[in-house]
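quick one: 5-O-phosphono-beta-D-ribofuranosylamine bound model?
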Amino acid sequence: MSPTIASAAEPYRTPDARGAAQLAVFVSGGGSNLKALHAAVSDGRINGTIVTVVSDKPGCGGWKFAQSKGIAVLQFPSKKHESGEHAVTIEALPATLRDLNIDFICLAGFLKLIPVELVRAFPRRILNIHPSLLPAFGGAGYYGARVHRAVVATGARYSGATIHFIDEEYDTGPILAQRVVSVYPSDTPQQVAARVLHQEHELYPEAVAALCDDRVTWREDGVPIIWKGH
Ligand code: GRF
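yep, here:
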């Protein structure tokens, strides 16, 4: 018997708050997905505002991009003794994001495990993008080039990108959207990575736009569904 589609979406945000959703984007590296999300916000595909960029790597590409666009940056995790003006501790992070009225958190190349306090403070509101067709090639140790090396080494004929809501583990939360790419016998891991990344840059904005438009509902078995825009 097919799972029941929830009849009505439980609105993520109250109707009077249907203005632009307030977004926090977490990065650890180049920030190409941050840039794709920012472009989609700028051209109106995403009804949202990137309020802050959070990174464990101050000065990384995503951090610098945020600063170039006048977006506030926060360093997380930071040790208690790191009193930099941007530093936020694990204990302070949930309240800091609540104070910024953050509606949704987008992990975009962020390599640290999200603390359980934050996962619980933002239920069904934290997305991650992973460069494989989860659950394949996911979990601890599967990140960046390691994913694509494993895909090529196993002879997988397909790979792709996955957007999922996070839970308290790496890469195991409910899947919201996926895109598939072919893997050819002559492919190098770098070629697979580039093909997947191209799909990521289209898929993440589409998924975040759906979330910001309240076009995501939850099946009774806990699977999130995107409903296409008009
Ligand atoms: C991307 O492949 C993404 O899937 C993974 O981190 C990689 C780098 O992301 N989570 P970005 O270029 O820093 O957005």
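The first helix runs from residue 32 to 42.
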